[in-house]
Amino acid sequence: MKHNTLPFQGTPEQEAQLKKVIANHQGQKGAVIPVLHEAQDIYGYLPIEVQEMISEGLDVPLAEIYGIVTFYAQFSLNPKGRYQIGVCLGTACYVKGSGDILEKVKELLNIDVGECSADGKFSLDATRCIGACGLAPVMTINDDVYGRLTVDQVEDILKKYE
C-alpha cells in the first residue's frame, strides 16, 4: 500500500486545542484513548506529527501511541477527503458485486482503501454492512447513498463530485 502523500497541514489553532486537551488529561490513568479521540476530532486523522505531540504531552512512548492508533479501526492515519467514499463489503453487497465496484473506484481515483487522493478531494473506505441490503451493492459518498450499482455507473457518479 502506498502511503499518504499529502503533507501535514496542522494549524496553530489546532495545536493549541490539542495542547489544552492533553493538559486536561495529564496524569489521568487511561488518558491516551480519550486524547486520541479528541485529537482526531480536531485534525480529522492522526498523523505522526499529532502522535508525537500526544506522546510528549502525556509522557507515553510513541510506539505505544502508534500501536493503539493502528489497532483500533476508529482511528485513521490518513486524512479524509472532502468526499468520503464508502463501498459496502457486507455479505449482501459483496455477493452482488461490491468487490468489483471497490476495484473500479480504486482504479479511477488511483488510491487504495484508507487513502486520500493527492488533491484531497476523495478518500476511500471499505465498510461493513450499512443496513441498505435491499439496495445491494451500495456505495456512499458523504451522505449520498448509491444503490443497485454496476461497475459501469461508478465513473459517472464520481464525476458529479469533481
Automatic annotation (TrEMBL):
Keyword Metal-binding: yes
The record's free-text note on cofactor binding: Binds 1 [2Fe-2S] cluster.
UniProt cross-references to InterPro entries, sorted A to Z: NADP_DH_HndA-like, NuoE-like, NuoE_dom, NuoE_N, Thioredoxin-like_sf
Cofactors named for this entry: [2Fe-2S] cluster
CDD domains: TRX_Fd_NuoE
Alphabetized GO MF terms: 2 iron, 2 sulfur cluster binding; metal ion binding; oxidoreductase activity
Keywords, comma-separated and alphabetical: 2Fe-2S, Iron, Iron-sulfur, Metal-binding
Pfam families assigned to the protein according to its UniProt record, in alphabetical order: 2Fe-2S_thioredx (PF01257)
Binding site for [2Fe-2S] cluster: C88, C93, C129, C133
Protein family according to the UniProt entry: Belongs to the complex I 24 kDa subunit family.
Name of the protein in its database record: NAD(P)H-dependent oxidoreductase subunit E
Source species of the chain: Ructibacterium gallinarum
